[in-house]
Design goal:
By secondary structure, this protein is an alpha+beta fold. The protein has helices at about 1-20, 20-55, 70-80, 95-105, 110-120, 140-145, 150, 165-205, 210-215, 220-260, 270-275, 275-305, and strands at about 60-65, 85-90, 130-135, 155-160. It folds into 2 domains: about 1-55 and about 165-305, no CATH class; about 60-160, 2-Layer Sandwich (Alpha-Beta Plaits), CATH 3.30.70.3040.
C-alpha cells in the first residue's frame, strides 16, 4: 500500500515537471488569487489596528477650578468611577502635571523661560482628571454627567476630542475595500479553478497511451487517478510558497513607509503577519487545496474513463 502511494506521488511529480509551463501558469493564477486574499487581509488588519488605536487614545480631561478642596476632588473621582460606562479614571495633581510639562518641553528654551516667570507666583497648572470610557459611544453619557450643575461648580474646563468621525471614515473605507477585495478574490479563485480543471484535462490527454498500458497490466483505478489528484497538492503548495515569498518581499519594501504612517497608531503590518503566520497561511493552504482538489476531481471524473 505504501509502495503504491509513493509511486503515485513519484508519477505526479514527474507530470508536474514534464508539463512545466502548464504548471507555471496554474501556480501563477493561484498566486494572484492568494495575493488578492492577502491584500484584503492586510487592509482589514490595518483598518482594525487604526480604529482600535484611535479608540484607545480617546479620553476626557477634566480640569478643576483653582483651590478646589482635595475632599471635593476625591468625592467627584469616586462618583465618576461608579459609572458603569467608565473604564478608567486617573487623577493628575497639578504638581505631577508641572513635572510632566517640564519633561515634555525641556528642550524648548522659550517655553521654559516663560514657565519660570509664571512659576514665581505659584504653580500655574490645575488638578485634572483623565476619564476613559468602555466604548466610544459611552463618552456622551459621561459628558452629560459632567454638564450637571453640581459638577460644574468644581469644573473649570474639560477637553474632549471626538474621534468618532475618524473612526467612521476608516470603517466606511474598510467596508468598501472589503467588498472590492472579495470581488477580486472571487474572480481570481474562479479563474484558478478553471485553470486547474484544464491543466488536469490536458495532462490526462497527454497520458492516454500510458493510461492504456496501465490498464493492460492491471493497475487499479485509484492508482491511475491518484497522480492527477496529487498534482493539485503541488499546485497549492508551490502557490502558497511563492505567495509567502512575494508578500515577504513586499512587506520588506513598503514597511518603512507604512511604519511612518501606521506607527502613529501603534500598528505594524510586518508584526501582524509574524504573529499570525501559521494561522493565516494554514487557512489559505487548506482553502486552496480544497478548491483545486474539487476542480481536479471533476476533471478526472469527466475525462479519465477508468
Amino acid at each position: 500500500m505504501n509502495y503504491t502511494f509513493w509511486r503515485a506521488i513519484k508519477f505526479a511529480w514527474q507530470d508536474f515537471w514534464r508539463n512545466f509551463w502548464l504548471s507555471f501558469v496554474t501556480i501563477t493564477v493561484i498566486v494572484l488569487a492568494l495575493l488578492s486574499v492577502n491584500i484584503l487581509i492586510s487592509l482589514n488588519a490595518m483598518s482594525d489596528g487604526v480604529v482600535n488605536s484611535v479608540k484607545a487614545k480617546v479620553d476626557i480631561t477634566v480640569f478643576f477650578k483653582e483651590n478646589t478642596s482635595e475632599a471635593k476632588i476625591n468625592n467627584f473621582l469616586q462618583k465618576i468611577k461608579a459609572q458603569k460606562e467608565v473604564q478608567e479614571v486617573v487623577l493628575v495633581s497639578k504638581d505631577e502635571a508641572l513635572e510632566k510639562f517640564k519633561i515634555d518641553y525641556a528642550g524648548d528654551k522659550a517655553i521654559m523661560e516663560a514657565l519660570e516667570e509664571v512659576s514665581d507666583k505659584g504653580n500655574p497648572l490645575l488638578d485634572s482628571l483623565i476619564i476613559k470610557a468602555k466604548d466610544t459611544e459611552d463618552y456622551q453619557v459621561v459628558l452629560n454627567m459632567l454638564s450637571l450643575a453640581e459638577n460644574q461648580e468644581i469644573i473649570k474646563s474639560q477637553n474632549f476630542t471626538d474621534h468618532q468621525k475618524i473612526i467612521s471614515r476608516v470603517e466606511s473605507l474598510s467596508d468598501k475595500v472589503e467588498k472590492f477585495g472579495f470581488g477580486l478574490t472571487a474572480v481570481f479563485a474562479f479563474i484558478a479553478v478553471l485553470i486547474v480543471y484544464n491543466a488536469i484535462r490536458v495532462t490526462i490527454y497527454t497520458h492516454k497511451e500510458e493510461i492504456g498500458v496501465m490498464k493492460l497490466v492491471g493497475a487499479g483505478n485509484s492508482f491511475i487517478r491518484a497522480p492527477f489528484l496529487i498534482n493539485t497538492l503541488f499546485y497549492s503548495l508551490f502557490g502558497l510558497i511563492f505567495t509567502a515569498i512575494v508578500i515577504y518581499l513586499l512587506l520588506r519594501a513598503v514597511n518603512p513607509q507604512l511604519s511612518g504612517f501606521l506607527g502613529v497608531y501603534d500598528f505594524s503590518l510586518l508584526s501582524f503577519y509574524a504573529d499570525n503566520l501559521l494561522w493565516l497561511f494554514g487557512v489559505q493552504f487548506g482553502g486552496t487545496l480544497i478548491l483545486t482538489a474539487l476542480s481536479s476531481a471533476v476533471a478526472v471524473g469527466k475525462y479519465l474513463k477508468v
